[in-house]
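Researcher: I'm preparing a figure for a lab meeting and need a structural model of a single chain. I don't have an experimental structure, so a prediction will have to do for now. The sequence is pasted below. Please return the structure as tokens so I can convert it later.
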Amino acid sequence: MSFENPDIDSIRELLQTTRTIAVVGLSPKANRPSHQVSQAMQEYGYRIIPVRPATGAVLGETCYPSLYDIPNPETIDLVDVFRAPEHVDAIVDACIELKLPAIWLQDGVINESAAERAQAAGLTVVMDRCVYRDRARFKL
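Model: Understood. Here is the structure written out token by token.
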């Protein structure tokens, strides 16, 4: 079995129904892609929850060391991942345990076995795509 992203209509629907995005690996540095993408998504009206250890706040939002530390994780619609592929397994484990509905692995974040495991657990999974680029493309 090899991983396949959802079709484009399903990706569009995911972005239309998402309100809160937990961003794992959100950098406080304005020149980093994670910061730029998250800021743009925030400007589109999404609530951003930064997930990054040893950081107090990013983009005006309290930062949490891990997905497990976020109060009311049931409010998270999507987990957007800006971490190296070798860190994805642990993030998928947290998503499954917390019963989060969807995970998005940004451009270059490719871990097929973790993506397949997340899908098998019932999560919507998008891999190796940019959430901002897709959101801008759909003109939602």
